[in-house]
Amino acid sequence: MKLQNVVLLSIICISLSACGTVPKSRSHFVELMKEGTGMGPFKRMAFSKVIPKPFAAVFDNINDKLLGCIPGGYQTTTMRGSSMSTLSVTNHNKIEKVTQDKAEITLQQFHSATLMQSDGGFYLLAADLHRIDQTSVRIDFFTGQHYLAIAEAIEQWAQGSQKCHGIGGNP
């Protein structure tokens, strides 16, 4: 077996053993992240941040930035000898109010050539936005350590930042 194949197989095995179960739903993903297992970039994390801003302002800015900073997806084509393969990646990002005092943020990424994905693709992050009072909110984040930059960008957007903070390759 070529060294390249051994390395690829090792990466796949590590990824699957760290990630384990394919989430059946957003709530299942949240429960898996609460376990806090895994290691390195595959470490599961659940944490909260309190933001001193009104719920509506936080919701609106996060919604604008999810739409403006994260691209809809991309396509790559690889040539190897006389064969060609194409991979399409589609980002599914949404924030929706589930009650007057709570909203859910969900980021998923669908890979066209990958098996064992959740409906809508791999979950990158889920976050629950809760109104504490008229002037503050709490955001409960559920993600893997590899996607902490997205959580940090969402926190910055909640505080009113108009930058993309490197998300989607945007400054």
Please tag this protein with its features.
171 residues; 4 helices; globular
Describe this structure in words.
By secondary structure, the protein is of the alpha+beta class. Helix content is 30%, strand content 37%. The longest helix has 17 residues. The chain is globular, with a radius of gyration of 18 Å.
Shape: globular
Strand order in the sheet with the most strands: 1-6-5-4-3-2
Low-confidence sequence ranges:
1-19
**SSE run:** HHEHEEEEEH
Helix amount, in percent? 25-40%
Largest beta-sheet characterization: 6 strands, antiparallel
Overall pLDDT level: 87
- Strand share of the residues? 35-45%
> Radius of gyration, Cα only, in angstroms?
18 Å
Secondary structure elements and pairings:
Layout: H1 3-19, H2 26-34, E1 44-51, H3 55-69, E2 73-80, E3 83-99, E4 102-111, E5 122-133, E6 136-144, H4 148-158
